[in-house]
Specification:
Strand content: 25-35%
Number of helices: 2
CATH topology of the largest domain: 2,3-Dihydroxybiphenyl 1,2-Dioxygenase, domain 1
Structural class: alpha+beta
CATH architecture of the largest domain: Roll
CATH superfamily of the largest domain: 2,3-Dihydroxybiphenyl 1,2-Dioxygenase, domain 1
Radius of gyration: 16 Å
CATH class of the largest domain: Alpha Beta
Order of helices and strands: EHEEEEHEEEE
Distance between the termini: 29 Å
Helix content: 10-25%
Largest sheet: 9 strands, mixed
Length: 150
């Protein structure tokens, strides 16, 4: 693929939809949080049952209003409970319009999973934005995020 091919469907040669978040599974929530805090100094915010026992991970300084990293190129992430369908690290790609991006994923040959409800619709994560998973053509689980305010 040449750089000109990247501009199809709204992308750009400079990477129009950046990776903005990573996710990794855990078997033991506290053990994972302790490891990354001790090894790398990352800050953890443990969410409860209502948010799937997710851990929000801050790897770098973050703007308190936008909740986005202040260091160019840096990303934050999260940890989720490992399960048979989600047992490997994945990335989250920012998009302007999640519904359009979900349509583009399907048209490109991916399988749109949607959010946690299992009905193909995105989750609305309070203070974060709209979130939807998908499987790419190579079997990788990836996610889309339309950040709040977009």
């Amino acid at each position: 693929m040449n750089n000109n091919d990247m501009s199809a469907k709204g992308g750009s040669t400079s990477g129009g939809n950046p990776v903005v978040h990573f996710e990794m599974p855990y078997e033991d929530k506290q053990r994972a949080a302790d490891f990354y805090t001790k090894a790398f100094g990352w800050k953890m915010q443990m969410l409860g049952e209502e948010m799937g026992n997710y851990i929000v991970v801050q790897t770098t300084e973050t703007d308190p209003v936008t909740k986005r990293p202040t260091t160019p190129g840096a990303i934050n992430g999260g940890f989720y409970k490992k399960n048979p369908s989600a047992n490997a690290p994945s990335i989250v790609i920012a998009v302007d319009d999640i519904h359009e991006a979900m349509k583009q994923v399907a048209e490109a040959g991916g399988k749109v999973l949607g959010g946690s409800k299992g009905d193909g619709t995105p989750d609305d994560i309070p203070g974060v934005g709209l979130y939807s998973g998908f499987i790419d053509t190579e079997g990788n689980k990836v996610a889309l995020l339309q950040p709040k305010g977009m």
